[in-house]
Amino acid sequence: MTCTIVVGGQWGDEGKGKIISYLCSKDNPSIVARGGVGPNAGHTVEVNGKKYGIRMVPTGFPNRASILAIGAGVLVDPEVLLKEIEMLNEFRVGERLIVDYNCGIIESRHREIDRSDNHLAKEIGTTGTGCGPANVDRVMRVLKLAKDVESLKPYLGDVSERINEALDRGENVLIEGTQGTLLSLYHGTYPYVTSKDTTASSFAADVGIGPTRVDEVIVVFKSYPTRVGEGPFPTEMPIEEAERLNLVEYGTVTGRRRRVGYFDYKLARRVCRLNGATQIAITCLDKYDRRCYGITRYEDLSEKGKSFIEKIEEETGVPVTLVSTGPELHQTIDRRE
Prior knowledge:
Layout: E1 3-8, H1 16-27, E2 31-34, E3 43-47, E4 50-54, E5 67-70, E6 75-76, H2 78-87, H3 93-96, E7 97-100, E8 104-105, H4 108-116, H5 118-124, H6 131-139, E9 156-157, H7 159-168, E10 173-176, H8 200-207, E11 216-222, E12 226-227, H9 239-244, E13 259-260, H10 265-275, E14 279-283, H11 285-288, H12 303-316, E15 320-324, E16 332-334
Parallel strand pairs: 1-10, 1-11, 2-5, 2-10, 5-7, 6-8, 7-9, 11-14, 14-15
Antiparallel strand pairs: 3-4, 12-13, 15-16
Helix pairs in contact: 4-6, 10-12
């Protein structure tokens, strides 16, 4: 039984939702806990051909046997969360959800400040979801907490206690981190970053477990990195090239067109080091080489696909254990022991 943290290896949008959904289906964790910033990160989860865009509920919700937890380090927008609970009613999310008593609360004034700040909105490209201003209030010790919100009372609990007790019983726990490592306030492309750290260490702290309780850290890389908003992007390709390669994408939260680039091995090595990665998951290999679409056995991949994976392993020193070759859960190569 293991405690696994899943981390984005680029600027978000790496396809973590697909990897998390696969792990939930395969490993059947008793708890899926969310760390990270808040509703400024969107995830798209596809279940039986239907897509769900979510910003607050853990993306492991399709596994109906798992408890869904939002750690104390995560900012909660009650309006967004309650809408998602209603939207996902068929998955009994409301019956399985635990929101930590100490989650910080985003209020309308935080969103207004976020959207009116010209420096953040225009120069950096904030999502306007109020996360930055709410984190400022948290640092100033004036932020409202989840335990003070009446509408959240049916879902409140001690997430740290529940996770640690599950680990004591030898159960599987999956912690999903939002955004990507290169958006970390400390280790990312400052000032074009989010309002807190987004590495595995912080995700463990967000849900209330110590570092010695973590067994595996899976860093997720997309075969072609993308970025929404401003900021450095060393391997960015021209828009015309992205269109030619059919790599045009739009952000889940902002709807803005994503900038697209070539895989950056140097940054991948740094990200693995920052997170203490034990495994790597590669998504969208089928976009890197169309001949890899839908393949489920490593030996059946094209030579181009294999060479790409081998080079990532060589450059980072970390094994690539999961490879996504399409949007469906079964379109996954699992090389774990």
